[in-house]
Fold this sequence. Notes:
The protein has strands at about 1-5, 10, 15-25, 30-40, 45-50, 55-60, 65-70, 75-80, 90-100, 105, 110-114. It is an all-beta fold. Strands 2, 4, 5, 6, 9, 10 and 11 form a seven-stranded mixed sheet that branches. Strands 1-3-8-7 form a four-stranded antiparallel sheet, with no helix packed on it.
Amino acid sequence: ARLVESGGGTVQSGGSLRLSCATSGFTFSIYHMSWHRQAPGKARELVATIDSSKRTSYNVDSVKGRFIMSRDDAKDTVYLQMNDLKPEDAGVYYCKADWPSTYWGKGTQVTVSA
């Protein structure tokens, strides 16, 4: 299995980024997908999930209303649209696939300047 994140970069506070996670090597459509992030010196945290029925949930209160997670089963790709970015959103963003197996991507860096 392979998960490759892209779309990270440096953006000013208030800006937007769209992260993508392109996958291969497993049956993407049946997997629950999630985005996690890790800021320097902090533990990795779950940001958002989407299940095989495209139902989403957001685990971090501060991203609700600003981040939108989606998936395209035809492209085996999951996305995270991030709007109104804040410095506290900075970190490495990881894509994860769950059930029946677990796979992680290597991450993409997001930097938000004040």
